[in-house]
Amino acid sequence: MKPLCKGGPRVRVIGALAASGALALTACSANATSSPSAASPGAGSTKASAGAAGIACGGAATLQASGSTAQQYAMKYWIKNYTRACPDTKINYTGNGSGDGQDEFLQGKTAFAGSDSPLSGEQIDQSEKVCPGGHAVHLPMVGGPIAVGYHLPGVDRLILDAPTLAKIFNGQITTWNDPAIAALNKGAKLPSTPIKQFHRSDSSGTTDNFTAYLGAVAPDAWPYEHGKEWKGKGGTGVKGSSDLAAQVRRTAGAIGYFELPYAVARMIRTVSLNTGAPAPVDANVISASQAIAGAQPAGDSDLVLKLDYTTKAPGAYPIDVVTYEIVCSKGNKPSTWPATKAFLTYVASQKGQESLTFQGYATLPAKVVDKVRTEIGGLS
């Protein structure tokens, strides 16, 4: 497969985004004019010291966190910048999947969890054991498209729709020159190569969101309840988005789903989606931001967002994910909470959010980020 672009990390990111139809964005975000940065009063504990670059530090601590692989590139970026300004704080984040991250948080092993799926009501009740006087809450921190990556030599652009995707991932369409694929790609020279479908083998919020899309838009072809565990037929399971993307990159005839940064890092071509809009939509930060902009809170008491997978708005890419940091509303561990709060305050700040588009992530609506900042200020 020919590489999409060449150059250093930033050049590769911008080039890959441009190749999929996105514009190269400068350091800005939808919430650039919103309220306080991480240096605002109350951002950390009363003992917090002012770090470099306007970041308020939370003091000496070692934070353990785990979960979502969707946010792993963003988390590396945040941790690097925060610990550079606040060297007394050490942050160890393990990208082991949303399911494991939730479990470890509910077992009291981590200061916070990253998850692309919200906790269930039963899990919220369970969280009261590790959140004395409180319960777990969700802080949406980053969004982005779930790209459908493929490796098909000679096919530079591939258009698929939800029913066709569902049939591919459920083992009903097995060759690349299937009439359903050919009808969506008139003029393309599709080979008779067998389709090699890869999916997540671990408990994954990416799987949850991807299958939620398939079930919402193509229920006849995808007759399963969405969830973190894979339910489709056939294919090969791979643990983690990174390894799944690597398998697609090295396997001719492959297809798989993973967050855009993993496609960008490996220069994997991604599917253009026929949503019923006037033109197929590419997976990029602009199209994902446009779709996520319409997300609404699922309830009044938490910040879980409900995505519209069925949107047909021009230029809106609907297979998206919102990643949450899960912490306690009350009862966070006193030994690590000042540093955790300071770190989360930085992540939600303008400084923490402004360059994520270069990492392949979409911006969350400004009103959502403002609510996150307010919520963090009230946690204890």
Descriptive report:
By secondary structure, this protein is of the alpha/beta class. It has two domains: 22-143 and 323-378, D-Maltodextrin-Binding Protein, domain 2 (3-Layer(aba) Sandwich); 145-292, D-Maltodextrin-Binding Protein, domain 2 (3-Layer(aba) Sandwich). Helix content is 32%, strand content 18%. The protein has helices at 9-19, 72-85, 98-106, 121-127, 162-169, 179-184, 205-217, 241-250, 260-266, 285-292, 337-348, 350-353, 366-378, and strands at 61-67, 89-94, 112-115, 136-151, 159-161, 196-200, 236-238, 254-259, 269-270, 272-274, 296-297, 305-306, 320-328. The strands form three sheets. Strands 1, 2, 3, 4, 6, 7, 8, 9 and 13 form a nine-stranded mixed β-sheet that branches. Helix 5 packs across helix 7 and helix 11 (337-348) packs antiparallel against helix 13. The chain is elongated and about 60 Å long. It starts with 8 loop residues before the first helix and ends with a helix. The model is unreliable at 1-48 (pLDDT under 50). This is Phosphate-binding protein. InterPro entries: ABC_phos-bd_PstS, PBP_domain, Phosphate-bind_PstS. Residues 60-350 form the PBP domain. Residues 1-32 form the signal peptide. Keywords: Phosphate transport, Signal, Transport.
